[in-house]
Write a structure and sequence with these properties.
Structural class: mainly alpha
Radius of gyration: 27 Å
Oligomer: single chain
Number of domains: 1
Shape: elongated
Number of helices: 3
Number of strands: 0
Strand content: under 5%
Helix content: 55-70%
Amino acid sequence: MTQIVNSLTSKLEVGAPMASLYLLQQPDHYTSHKFISFYWTSYVNEIKKVWNTDNMMDTEED
């Protein structure tokens, strides 16, 4: 039983920096960039339009 408890508690350990961030209610990540949203589906749809017209031209030439 002791081994089970020890193995479970070792997985719950939090380092000092993470504990202090939690107690100070600070974010747990750092970044030097501000990211913007990129909508991948609109990009893929535009590429598909071009790809489909190229394929149509190839079949017409055959």
